[in-house]
Amino acid sequence: MTEQTARAKVDEAQTAARTLAMCSEDERNAGLRSIADALEERTDEILEANEKDVAAGEKLLEAGEYSQALVDRLKLSESKLEDIAEMVRSVAEQTDPLEKTLVSRRLDEDLELYKTAVPIGVVGTVFESRPDALVQIAALSLKSGNAVILKGGSEASHSNRVLYEIIQEATDEFPAGWAQLIEAREDVDALLEMDDAIDLLMPRGSSAFVEYIQDNTSIPVLGHTEGICHVYVDDDADLEMAADIAFDAKVQYPAVCNAVETLLVHESVADEFLPAIAERYEDAGVELRGSEAVREIIDAGPATEDDWASEYGDLVLSITLVDSLDGAIDHIAEYGSKHTESIVTEDDDRAVRFMRSLDSASVFHNASTRFSDGYRFGLGAEVGISTGKIHARGPVGLEGLTTYKYHLEGDGHIVATYAGEDAKPYLHEEFDGDWLDN
Amino acid sequence: MTEQTARAKVDEAQTAARTLAMCSEDERNAGLRSIADALEERTDEILEANEKDVAAGEKLLEAGEYSQALVDRLKLSESKLEDIAEMVRSVAEQTDPLEKTLVSRRLDEDLELYKTAVPIGVVGTVFESRPDALVQIAALSLKSGNAVILKGGSEASHSNRVLYEIIQEATDEFPAGWAQLIEAREDVDALLEMDDAIDLLMPRGSSAFVEYIQDNTSIPVLGHTEGICHVYVDDDADLEMAADIAFDAKVQYPAVCNAVETLLVHESVADEFLPAIAERYEDAGVELRGSEAVREIIDAGPATEDDWASEYGDLVLSITLVDSLDGAIDHIAEYGSKHTESIVTEDDDRAVRFMRSLDSASVFHNASTRFSDGYRFGLGAEVGISTGKIHARGPVGLEGLTTYKYHLEGDGHIVATYAGEDAKPYLHEEFDGDWLDN
Fold this sequence. Notes:
2 copies of one chain form a homodimer.
Chain A: H1 6-20, H2 25-41, H3 43-62, H4 68-74, H5 78-93, E1 101-108, E2 111-119, E3 122-126, H6 131-143, E4 147-151, H7 157-170, E5 179-182, H8 185-193, E6 200-203, H9 207-215, E7 229-233, H10 239-251, E8 260-266, H11 267-283, E9 287-290, H12 292-295, E10 301-302, H13 305-308, E11 316-322, H14 325-335, E12 340-344, H15 348-357, E13 362-367, E14 384-386, E15 394-396, E16 402-413, E17 429-430
Parallel strand pairs in A: 3-4, 3-6, 4-5, 7-8, 7-12, 8-11, 9-10, 9-11, 12-13
Antiparallel strand pairs in A: 1-2, 1-17, 2-16, 14-15
Protein name (chains A, B): Gamma-glutamyl phosphate reductase
EC number (chains A, B): 1.2.1.41
Pfam families (chains A, B): Aldedh
């Protein structure tokens, strides 16, 4: 790899994006399959590089600077690489997010407007230490016709470099530089200034990191900061169902953003509901923190104001009572992060009220918050989760990496014909037809 | 009107947005009709306030600080108010952008996912001096269920205050404070900090102003900075058609963002094409600025590097020759603002290449750039034009003021069922059905 500045890399990506946008679905899928094959063929090379990262990680583990979990996430193996190659092939199998005509409208005779799905252009990504993240992001970008800037964690630098080289070489039929690897932390700050060249930033990482990105760039940012999700157990809930949902939402995988952080219980069912669920939580090692009223019923630590606004990401749960559905809605509106909320109730009207009032990306009735996920939602590969409300919201699939473009096919039409005293009226008729077939 | 701080107004709008999101289409349309009626009933009051603004504007005109055009735009009349009331009624007539189910997907038996269109929440708007802008923006916001912060130009402050009071009183059945008037310039800067409460900013005004907003907030911004549009006359163009399009694109209304600024002509047709079109432009008072090669053929001032990157917004046009289609594409990619470009050619393949290569919101074949407009595109009322690529692009209709939300209806479903060794597979079947009918 020759050394280029971050700016030179982004400029090259921008040029590549223009050509990439014209590649057909077959070409993009062939590129993906070629990446998958190369990953399998060059397994030894990847594992060798990965060992260097793991060895460095283990030294830091001994020094107490790294956790075992972090080292485990770094580590690749032959079977993991096979899974990664399979993941790339499955991205190739997905429905093409491009080459779709979204609207065809006849403005007048021989004046036809087509709104079609197109790539966004240049997407900047900053992601965590798992080396499979680089491959996944590159694959999703290629599938959606976007040039991509990849900035991985320095812990995985050897692995990332080899994976990147393999991807580059496997896609040498594509415009050079459609994928760019950025390695230095300083280069991230350089990227944030390039609002003329980067169309979208997708940071993954801690809330603080995502907020830092949002606050320091005028490039649109797609990402999620916090996931403070709620389960509300209504007074008309099936309490057995409520217990199953509340348990699953916390315990099934507590480290992720769609796990529940605060359980809201209607006061009239608290005496019956809380003791049983508290026992299940206790058996699973969940630390409970309750409001005063909760602590009169079950054994729990005291919850402070901070608890209602905390994403624990761990086996910790805060619990409070509410006196009504509106009490639950108000609590969530005040402390939630607009990610995912679930109501457990047999009363459909109340469920509708809960789901319509709350301004969260995902609102559930009688289901675990853990369903809030691109794969479970049937979106195919997940690009990320967005807690913003603009462009893409909630779990984001490949569609989130596309935008649209208007094509107008005329026959010498001018606006003067449709203006002034003898203005010709527009037809504005929708019709069936694709732009490229016209 | 009691005096509230900008923060208090935005907080009130945020609370109102939650209730407003639950209003039905009928309720929102009734609100719009009530605004239209009130505008007609209280014409005298509005005109009285408007006279104060006009008088102040005329003083500034005498002092040489205002243009006549600005004063003209400020001025309301009985018939203008009737038009404004009719505009509000026409917004009520438009297809509801909400209460639409975009996707219905069965994840498993009795586990149904609905993606539905919902309002964005709180929209902040800053607009120019025309008092009808306030009414139009408020109407579009109410139609799309959004609470709105309105900051108009100080030149129109008396008119804006009365129009705002009328809108408030006419919609007193809606949550108080769904529309908020902000009057002080300092309050704009306060708004830019409120990324916790404002979901979208829509500034209208000069490029410099829109850029200032983009650079000083982490709230998503929908707007357009520059409109540097191009017409390319290919060597295979019908030259008569090309002349009509190039003329219309510049002359029909030069002050707007979709007017052409640079004309690109294939060198092999320049000798034939340029003299005739130059004469038409001259008759219409258009100042021409050409490259050296152009000035060898027609009489024109010299175009500098700055000209290629300028939005004149006036009867000025820059012209240059290119040696190929790719030369035209490269010029537009370098200097354009991704707004609207048009190719005039009889060769469909070249048209496709032009339209696919260019990363502009609107790409036209054999039609004037002036068609790039929400009304002409058949989008109904136009919220604005976006030169960004995220969320909404090109002319933006009511849909641009909506986002979506996922509703999941379960029957006690938990994720543990679908994980691990005996994981149940998902169905992921699309079906016909609306969330509220389920």
